[in-house]
């Protein structure tokens, strides 16, 4: 018998990621009398190290390994040499592929190693952020706050919907290009007028999709980073919004789109909207010319994912970097000085690590600002464009958009993943991420880039999905209209206008009950995390030194009688005896969740 489990503090300390300058202590157990054990560690794409493990008086093998070099990923497994009268046999012990307890391998080339994340420094978030319940607003689709409903400065050749209840669609040319951008007319004054609604819902932080001047309704095609889009209002409206939010102890983060701009922007200006001599596509002597890579000037150029509406910017260009974050009058400086509370970086994969660090350094010159990155996978080991990314090793992103959690929730409720799969994946993410990042991540069930949660799981699963959103570690974020009962598939169906005259009371009340619970339960804001499972039940634990919050999730259709002996706890927590008593003989209906609390 051979055994190792990095989720158990009896076998690995500390749990999960470690900081540069600290050590990892390992214990490996066996009932074999004549063996030698070596811990084999490989630096990511780098050198291999071997550490002989020492046998203690109890027959276990132990080693303490310092990590004094640069931050990054390390991968490790165990090499076992068995001695007998017939000679020596080599075996290898590594990860099972789902984390936790490992597997024995006969060929080292087949071993799945354990991942160890070594980070440079902690990345604590501002206290307001850790206590936040976020609300994502797609401005054009939220609310028109003008007294007469008039639309501000309609864009040339655009399409305005006749009714707010119309289903959004794209008006396209035969070749698939957008012929006319469609608008409902939501604006900043609309957000101002709905602050009481948001506060009543339990929202204390807003994430705004892009608000800078653009051509499209989504405004990810920035025309001018220093101006509010005229359809949304004026800079004075934005300043009033910030002031009123802060008066209500609410916070606001903006969407930073720094990978690309619009082809009609001040910086590119392919149609000459800003004059015949302005912009890279009109003037090779433009100060913006070196921001772009032309293949055949001026109509063939590198664009974001080949979309010609979105010329891609060279993020290594010093002029562009200074413009975005390096100068006293930079883009970040302007909006930070107006009082925003942070940024969400669009398509972080497209931004070099050094660019993201430059933005972080800018934000660190202010107090209490947050930097979140759009990353769709496990950010600890993400490879983009052939390079391992250093998003979360310190001094870069403080949080990511937690799409992995969303995928786990949806797949569990739709029967595509088992409770065991989800529990193991949750623990793996916790193990891979530095602790601050794991608890800082922005959790969502839907965004402007995904189908709406009601469409994905149906109303019968919605309450359970929300339980997971609000109980799992991270900061919950509601996509506008989800609490009103909006449904919708992929873009543009997921970008309907908010149904102010047709809010579903049942759906709204479920959302509100969870926002209130999140705001009032200290363990949900600051508690530690662990999980457990049976073959059909998932348990989520959030706990402090004095209390434990237990959320039981039954994704099946059947009523479940909890049999404690059937539960697998993934960590050996000190309060497990009391927890087992609490769970004994509990019954949970199908497609529901059940909350339990206990003092410790």
Q: What distinguishing features does this structure have?
A:
alpha/beta; 15 helices; 37 strands; Immunoglobulin-like; 600 residues; GH; eight-stranded parallel sheet; glycosidase; seven-stranded mixed sheet
Describe the structure.
Residues 136-518 form the Glycosyl hydrolase family 13 catalytic domain. This is Glycoside hydrolase family 13 protein. With 600 residues, this protein is an alpha/beta fold. Among the domains are: 2-119, Immunoglobulins (Immunoglobulin-like), CATH 2.60.40; 260-313, no CATH class; 528-599, Sandwich (Immunoglobulin-like), CATH 2.60.40. It is 23% helix and 27% strand. It is built from 15 helices and 37 strands. β24 (342-345), α7 and β25 form a beta-alpha-beta unit. The chain is globular, with a radius of gyration of 26 Å. The mean pLDDT is 98.
Average pLDDT works out at 98
Q: Unreliable segments (pLDDT under 50, ≥5 consecutive)? A: none
User: What is the CATH superfamily classification of the domain at 2-119?
Assistant: Immunoglobulins
End-to-end separation: 35 Å
Q: Output the strand order for the largest sheet.
A: 28-25-24-21-18-13-30-29
Report strand %: 25-35%
Overall number of strands: 37
Biggest beta-sheet profile:
8 strands, parallel
CATH class of the domain at 2-119: Mainly Beta
Helix content percent band: 10-25%
CATH topology of the domain at 2-119: Immunoglobulin-like
CATH architecture of the domain at 2-119: Sandwich
Number of helices: 15
* Rg estimate, integer Å: 26 Å
What form results from the Cα inertia axes?
A: globular
Q: Look at the helices and sheets and give the structural class.
A: alpha/beta
């Amino acid at each position: 018998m051979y055994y190792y489990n990095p989720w158990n503090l009896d076998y690995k300390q500390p749990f999960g990621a470690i900081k540069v300058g600290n050590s990892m202590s390992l214990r490996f157990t066996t009932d074999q009398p004549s063996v030698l054990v070596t811990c084999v560690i490989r630096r990511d794409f780098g050198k291999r190290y071997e550490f002989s493990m020492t046998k203690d008086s109890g027959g276990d093998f132990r080693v303490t390994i310092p990590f004094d070099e640069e931050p990054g990923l390390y991968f490790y497994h165990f090499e076992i040499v068995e001695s007998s009268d017939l000679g020596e046999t080599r075996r290898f012990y590594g990860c099972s592929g789902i984390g936790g307890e490992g597997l024995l391998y006969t060929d080292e080339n087949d071993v799945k190693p354990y991942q160890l994340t070594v980070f440079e420094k902690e990345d604590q978030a501002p206290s307001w952020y850790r206590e936040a319940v976020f609300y994502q607003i797609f401005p054009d689709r939220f609310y028109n706050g003008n007294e007469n409903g008039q639309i501000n400065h309609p864009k040339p050749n655009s399409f305005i919907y006749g009714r707010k209840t119309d289903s959004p669609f794209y008006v396209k040319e035969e070749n698939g290009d957008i012929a006319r951008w469609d608008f409902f007319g939501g604006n900043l004054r609309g957000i101002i007028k709905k602050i009481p609604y948001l506060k009543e819902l339990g929202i204390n932080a807003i994430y705004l999709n892009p608000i800078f001047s653009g051509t499209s309704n989504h405004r990810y095609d920035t025309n001018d980073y220093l101006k509010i889009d005229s359809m949304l209002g004026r800079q004075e409206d934005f300043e009033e919004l910030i002031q009123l939010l802060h008066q209500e102890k609410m916070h606001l983060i903006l969407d930073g789109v720094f990978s690309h701009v619009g082809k009609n922007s001040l910086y590119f200006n392919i149609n000459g909207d800003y004059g015949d001599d302005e912009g890279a596509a009109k003037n090779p002597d433009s100060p913006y010319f070196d921001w772009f890579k032309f293949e055949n000037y001026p109509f063939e150029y590198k664009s974001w994912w080949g979309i010609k509406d979105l010329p891609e910017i060279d993020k290594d260009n010093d002029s562009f970097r200074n413009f975005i974050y390096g100068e006293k009058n930079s883009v970040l400086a302007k909006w930070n000085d107006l009082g925003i509370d942070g940024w969400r970086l669009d398509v972080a994969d497209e931004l070099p690590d050094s660019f993201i660090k430059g933005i972080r350094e800018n934000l660190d010159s202010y107090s209490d600002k947050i930097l979140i990155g759009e990353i769709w996978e496990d950010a600890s080991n993400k490879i983009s464009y052939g390079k391992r990314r250093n998003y979360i090793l310190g001094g870069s992103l403080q949080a990511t958009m937690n799409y992995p959690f969303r995928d786990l929730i949806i797949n569990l409720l739709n029967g595509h993943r088992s409770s065991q799969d989800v529990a193991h994946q949750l623990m793996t993410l916790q193990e891979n991420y530095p602790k601050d990042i794991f608890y800082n991540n922005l959790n969502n069930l839907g965004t402007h880039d995904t189908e709406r949660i009601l469409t994905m799981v149906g109303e019968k699963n919605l309450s359970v999905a929300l339980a997971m959103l609000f109980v799992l570690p991270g900061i919950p974020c509601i996509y506008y209209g989800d609490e009103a009962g909006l449904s919708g598939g992929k873009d543009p169906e997921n970008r309907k206008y908010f149904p102010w005259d047709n809010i579903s009371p049942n759906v709204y009340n479920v959302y509100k009950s969870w926002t209130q619970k999140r705001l009032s339960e200290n363990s949900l804001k600051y508690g530690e995390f662990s999980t457990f499972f049976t073959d059909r039940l998932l348990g989520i634990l959030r706990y402090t030194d004095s209390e434990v919050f237990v959320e039981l999730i039954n994704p099946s259709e059947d009523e479940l009688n909890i049999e404690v002996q059937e539960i697998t706890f993934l960590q050996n927590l000190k309060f497990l005896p009391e927890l087992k008593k609490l769970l004994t003989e509990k019954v949970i209906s199908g497609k529901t969740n059940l909350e339990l609390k206990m003092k410790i």
